[in-house]
Each structure stands twice: as C-alpha cells, then as structure tokens.
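hey so i finally got around to running the thing on that chain from the lab meeting. sorry it took forever, my laptop kept dying and i had to restart like 3 times. anyway pasting the input first so we r on the same page abt which one it is
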Amino acid sequence: MTMGKNHQAEILETMMQADFYPHPVERVGRRETHISTVFLAGSFVYKIKKPVDLGFLDFTSLEKRQHYCLQEIALNRRLIRHFETGAEMIADADYAHSVGQTVEKTYKDDLSSIPHEIRVTAGYPWEEILRWAKAIDTDLIALGPHSTRAQEKGVVRVVGRVGSTVENVVTRETCPVMVASRSAQNDQLRFKRVLVPVDFSRSCECAVSFAAELAKHHRSRLFVFHMIPVPPFPKYTRIDYTAHAAHSKKRLESFYEEYLYGTDHRYLIKAGAMPHLEILTCAGENNIDLIIMGSHTKEKPGKWYPGSAVERVAYRTACPAMVVTDPGALTHWDLSVSADDGEGKDRLIRVFSGT
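ok and heres what got predicted. didnt touch it at all, straight out
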C-alpha cells in the first residue's frame, strides 16, 4: 500500500492542531528533516517518515515506513545511561545482570523473606512495565511517583504530578496500581483504615468494590468520602449544606451499600472546592493507612491522563494510594460491579448555583 503525498499532507496539517493529541498540549512545534517531519507536542515527540526514495533508503510505502519506525525504536531502546556513572552506552546482557545484582543487594532486607524474581530490561519504563505485567498476568502494580534523582538528572518535575511513568501505566493498565510516595510503616501496611473518595462515577464504583473485598480480608474499616462541590459562603449556607449532605448520603447508600454489606464502614461528606485537598485532609484526620481511588481515565475516549485529584493525592499523601481504572481491574480478584444500564443511576455531580 502506498500513501499519496496529498493524504500525508492532510495528516501533517491535522497534527499541527493541539486538540488532535490524547494528552494535554498547549501548542505544537514542527521540525523538518530530509526524511521525517517531527512534531513537538507537550511532553511527547511524534515523528512521521516522509514517503521518499533517496536510493540508500526507500520509504515510499506505508509498510516500509512502519518497518523502519520499528527498527528505529528497537535500536534507540538499547541506548541508555549507566545507572552509576551516567555514561551513555548500549545495554547488553552483562549490564542487565549487574543491575539485577545491585537491585537484589539494595532491597535484600525487604525481599529476603518473600518469593520474588528480578527482571531487568532496556526500554521506556512504562512500556516495559506494561509488557511484563501482561506477560505474567499480574494482579497489582506498585510504583513510586517520582525519581529521587530527578535534579541530578536535570529533569524538571512539575509539583503535584506523579510523573510520566506512573501516568502512562495508570492510563493504560487495567489491574490496580498502587502509588507509594514514601515509605509506609508496618502498622499502615495492615490497611486497618482505608479511605475511598467517590463521585458516583463508574470508576469509583469499581474502587468501592475492590476496597470492600480488601476490607473483608484485612478486617479494615472503610471511610467512603464524598465532597460536595460548592461556592464559598455567603452564597452557600449551612441550611444548603445540610440539605445537600442528606441527599448525598442517600445517593451514597443507593450506589455503594450492595458492595459494602458485611464490612465496617461509614460515609463522610464534606463541602469544598478542591477535591484533592479535602481528600488529604480527611486522610490525615482519620489516620488513614490506604487511599483507594477511581480514575476517570478510561470513561471517555481520548482522555489519557489520570485526573488532577488522583495525581495530586498520589503525589502528596503520606500513605499509599491505589488507583482502580475500570471493571477489568476487578477480574483477577473475582470481583465485578453491577451492570450499568445508562439510566438506572444518576452519576452527575451537581454544583450549587445559588438559585
């Protein structure tokens, strides 16, 4: 199959639009080489090979361009920086073995008492994590939100962002993903007090289902938290809040009681404007050991980011945070959520308008 130049020109023109991309992009930059067009879009770079034949290379067909794109990816994936010296090098089996030994030595106190396997591979971290997760049919992925060597590497980190590795894993993986921003105490790891922030979305329903099963296993107490989004006083009064809180309590019970039956749980409702701040405050006030959140990343086509509340909570919380994206995350745990008929449940969040 050969792609006409006019057809590729249409694609290149479309790729100059910021809303073409499935991730946040403020503006798009474009660069030309003799064989490729390169687009700088937010934190990602896209390369389109031109349909040219220069004698020493032939990109005239779609199949040939795809072949050489894959070859380029395979070659670049092996180019790394040594984890100790920072020297640029090609990863090989000997290097992978030395990294594996270093990992084993570094974490021997944590791993010595449990069965484990260490795998080392070169590539983009999130891609390799997803590839190995699929290969071993994993039930849970645990990650740290940021590299502690970011400043040393010259990488700019955005405050409140969990980082590209966590973001890409969360938005593409169906199994639960746990994000630990700091070391957890042994008492916390018993997960006796678990917070589940909810907003009546499908993903939050999945999070409640997962949390309920975990609570039954660990004999945990669940705190199901909902924030009523409201404007500041005096537009929103105590009378308004009391009425809305009562209505929200009924909605919470109708949505989640079927999953929470048989667990020690309570509903917490608070009015606020910034969900992540209210969630973090609630976690601190109730000595929470684990936060389980639903992410909206897969509820709408094209939304390829975890959501600001998930990112900011995972980045700032003192306890581990677990993200559940969709019903597929529950299958390994023999769990499910009730069928969504599209009309049986009101999933809308209503903001007080003062009228």
